[in-house]
Amino acid sequence: MGTKQKLISLTLCVGLIMGMTAADRFSIAFAAETPKQEAVRKLGELNALITQAKGSGIDTTREESAAWMASEFIKYADWDAANVAKNKAQFERVKLFQNNAQQLANDLPNFERREVSQMLDTAKTELNQVMSGAVTRRAVSKVNWSNITVQNDQFMSNGKPVFLYDYFSKPLNIPTSDPTLYNEYLGKLDHPKAISPIFALDEAGTIDQTKLADLKNRPTNTAGYLMLWHDPLPQWAATKYGPEILKGQSFFTKYDIDHPQVREIWKDVFKGTIPTTAGKNYTKLGYILANEPHWFTAKGHWAAVSNVSTYTMSKFRTWLEAKHGTIAKLNGLWGTSYSSFSQVNLAIPLDASYKNTPIWYDWSRFNMDRGTEWLTFLHDEIKKYDPAARTQLKLMPDLFVEGPRDHGIDFEALTEMTEIIGDDAKIRKRNMNSTGPESWESKYAYYWEEMAMSYDFMDSVSPNKPHFNSEVHLLSTTQYRDLYMKPEYVRSTYWQTTIHGLNGGLTWFWGRNADGSIEERLQNATGGLGESYAASVAQQPRVAQELTKTMMDMNAFSNEIVKFQRERKPVRLFYSEAAAINDFNYMQDQFDLYESMYFSGVPLGFATKNIIFKQPNSDWDVIVVRKTEEVTEAEFNALQIYLDNGGTVILDDVSLKFNEYKQPRAKTLTAGTGKLIKMTNNAVSGIASRVTTELSAKGQLPPVVLTENNGLPSKGAFWRVVPHGTNTYLMTIVNVGKNTSNISLKMANNKNVTVKNLMTGKSSPASFSLGSEQVLLLEVKPVP
């Protein structure tokens, strides 16, 4: 092109541009932006807006969080762009991503930058609404991480309940004083290195002073927790006491819990460490006695122990003698011909042919008792040197909601024993190893059964204890990952879990250093930890920000949310460990009943023999017994005493027929001075309907009624209502259904209501649509 032609072309371009509107010229300029330039520009715009809003006295804590996350993830994206091969290696470790690991690694930096831009757009929109007065919101109550206290069932900060948050896997070599990874956006809980048997250098109990130094010299600025780790055993102990001390190993406990020398080692370790840790801020949230304890003993299970020690079998014989009294009685039950208890011997892992036999029951029950006894030993030894100590356990709730009971974990006994309820419950979408849709997908947006049912059980056992999940699997698990997760899922799952009683947790995962690089140990890690980084929250800016913002919103309304947590549970499902051991389908049958009442607005709980005897029976109105065929005599008697004291029991036509050994029971429940309602079948619909009738007669149905239509036969709106002042009610709704729900609210007496969204300050019609995974916190009042 000649000079004249270039000038003509340039003149035409200038003319076209001059003829455009300002908006058109703006669009062209930004169309040429790279994703990074766009993110940086929008961050600058949000920061300018924050400055303007703060000048008007507006709380901008939520937006400051978005700005901080944006800045960090812009940095992370730069690192990812320079380290594509390292990210490719991480994606290749996850089966779901192996076929397109290279493309995912290539796309990751700009994916993160675009997510940052969307996050900043959302923050700017909300702040503009606040500045214009269109939205009114409550200021965030920031956590005072250095002054957390425990009061009954809550963690407290600045005189009010607080929901604590942090991440499970921040880099080990970065101190908790580092403000880049420990702050109000990612959480700021302290966690010294775990105490373990290798602290003991010899049989005399000499403590490794190098390991003790971290506990001695650690700054005690923020609240935290201290883990007990059970792997490995000191080499000197394995050498001195031989292979017997290494028998009965489980996945995270690499020694025999019944070996007397193991206990002596732990006694020495506690004696040498707990006086140092006692009263420190970093143990304020408790000593975690074990990471995911379990001792599966059924042949064929992936985590089954390969054997047990002579100490374990000897303890089993003692247990059998205490339970059965005579060897003749045992032989009669087992179909054996032992001449004494000393002859009893079982090959562990136990063959499947023993299932549903008295032998299976006795071993499973004993295995639970020995697990409880071992963990109680750890608890008591800590309390010996730190009487004010609180303990917790990282229990796996799937062991409660699923069928097998050979795992050695008694959820009720362990929840009773510890001062803080502890677990690592999960919520997820489809398991990445599933070959097709899972059964829940026809109704729900995600799988919530494990969290909800186990949390209601543990809260029923210990209603006055705080609940801390030390490995929160709501965003990802080793079996679930979604790189393109939407913020709605994050808010929905954390909100639902908190309504069910969670007071704090460590979300799985993080894994980035302050400069955005992948933590060194993860680059070579194997197993679950090694597979956990790819497509986790550290690659998801909007997910990370929504988690923080959700926690900030809940902390702004913590006094209100605690009312939902403490709401009385008028309906109790009867739970029998004997039935659970005997019947593989027992927990599914209980969930069917639980699910049928879950969307009624009525909080659900559980009743056991111990709950009936230890807690005021006025805490509930009815106990429901469904498909609980085998119960111990003590469990049967507890129900009868409850009836004799005026209680109400709804009983189906198959329950309580047998004892724990499947022997027929001659006795049947009688009403006594109470009310015994015998159903002619065990269908959940009929039982749920009768529960509603009983609650209505006792005046215990919710004062506000929610009607839902989501186009499915099943409901999806999980909701709760609590009083909040004179003639005013708080209501929260979480749509866990797969479809949008059309919802209408009225008072139970059919009066119309006024509705206000407490998160925005806006009035709402009493009939509205609520999308899948959407959350509401409402104030509801009857129209005068």
From TrEMBL:
<protein>
    <recommendedName>
        <fullName>Glycoside hydrolase family 42 N-terminal domain-containing protein</fullName>
    </recommendedName>
</protein>
<dbReference type="GO" id="GO:0004565">
    <property type="term" value="F:beta-galactosidase activity"/>
</dbReference>
<dbReference type="InterPro" id="IPR013529">
    <property type="entry name" value="Glyco_hydro_42_N"/>
</dbReference>
<dbReference type="GO" id="GO:0009341">
    <property type="term" value="C:beta-galactosidase complex"/>
</dbReference>
<feature type="signal peptide">
    <location>
        <begin position="1"/>
        <end position="31"/>
    </location>
</feature>
<dbReference type="InterPro" id="IPR017853">
    <property type="entry name" value="GH"/>
</dbReference>
<dbReference type="InterPro" id="IPR029062">
    <property type="entry name" value="Class_I_gatase-like"/>
</dbReference>
<keyword id="KW-0326">Glycosidase</keyword>
<keyword id="KW-0732">Signal</keyword>
<dbReference type="Pfam" id="PF02449">
    <property type="entry name" value="Glyco_hydro_42"/>
</dbReference>
<keyword id="KW-0378">Hydrolase</keyword>
<feature type="domain" description="Glycoside hydrolase family 42 N-terminal">
    <location>
        <begin position="309"/>
        <end position="524"/>
    </location>
</feature>
<dbReference type="GO" id="GO:0005975">
    <property type="term" value="P:carbohydrate metabolic process"/>
</dbReference>
